Amino acid sequence: MHRSTSRAALLSSALAALLSCCPVIASAAEQAARPVPAAGGKAIERGRYLVRIAGCNDCHTPAYAERGGAVPEKEWLTGSPVGFRGPWGTTYAANLRLTMAALSEDDWVRAAHGKQYRPPMPWFALRDMQAADLRAIYRFIRHLGPAGEPAPAFVGPGGTPGGPVVQFPG
Ligand code: HEC
Question: Domains (ranges, CATH) in the chain?
């Protein structure tokens, strides 16, 4: 019993060492520990500007549109509890502060250029963005740091969302 326990301990520390050495298979928590880009860089400034003008806050920051954008930056992109309900089911604008903390910069660029999210997420805007702009957005959001809770989970077309929703026709 004692022997197998210590073998298990050995195995798990070997696994931990392996995980910390290899970014490809690093866990979300380890990825969250990636160094945050230094504040004040040009990319961070550009990322702030792009987030502002591309409208990411309109959905991903609680009450941003309703308050005419008068929401402190520390609350930006923490996700919204208001659902978007339509023929696709009910979607929630994700907490991007947590999304980015779990992704490497390269993973983010790949996802942004390749993934189709459900409505009303304008995934086609991410698809059409230049990689340098996506990298700037990533750096800005990582600079803000992880914060808040995950947004509610997607509810399928047959389900009934628990909280408030914006209802789309169809
Ligand atoms: C009109 C509302 C709206 C706008 C504007 C918007 N999003 Fe979204 N976003 C959503 C919704 C809703 C989802 C969830 C989609 C789903 O469930 O498939 C989402 C999902 C995402 C995801 C996936 C997150 C994850 O953890 O899976 C990313 C990344 C994202 N948005 C980034 C952005 C960025 C960057 C911008 C600005 C360029 C932006 N969004 C603008 C509504 C919006």
Answer: 37-153 (1.10.760)
Q: How confident is the model at residue 35 (pLDDT cuts 50, 70, 90)?
A: low
Expressed in percent and rounded to 5, the helix, strand and coil fractions of the chain are: 50, 5, 45
Strand ordering across the sheet containing 89-92: 89-92, 83-86, 165-167
**Does the predicted model carry a pTM greater than 0.85?**
no
- H/E stretch holding 115 reads none
Decide whether any atom of ligand 1 lies within 6 Å of the 77 Cβ.
no
pLDDT at position 25: 44
Q: d(Cα 151, Cα 78) in Å, to the nearest integer?
A: 8
User: How many alpha carbons lie under 13 Å from residue 158 in its C-beta half-sphere?
Assistant: 0
Pocket perturbation via mutation, ligand 1, pick of 53, 60, 88, 97 by most ligand atoms within 8 A of CB: 60
User: What are the tens digits of pLDDT across the range 6-32?
Assistant: 555 544 544 444 444 434 444 555 555
110: its two tokens: 């790949």
Beta bridge partners of 90: 85, 155
Q: How far apart are the first and last CA of the chain?
A: 61
